[in-house]
Amino acid sequence: MFKSKEDATLALTLVKLYFQDEITEKADYVPASLTMHLDLIDKAILYIDPNADIDELCRKASEENIRRT
Asked: What is the share, in percent, of the chain residues with pLDDT greater than 70?
């Protein structure tokens, strides 16, 4: 379980970034189901935090992910 909504949105954002990396690697074909899942992730983030800026969350998650590696 997540301790805060920030932890939950960060986890979802990291999942979204993973899928976006997969799309970047396989740029020739993106299955519709994958884009649907990305949309569902966005909706889940906004359900948890209606004021969330998804682009900003992606930026922060990318920076944190780079620092971890």
From this structure: 97
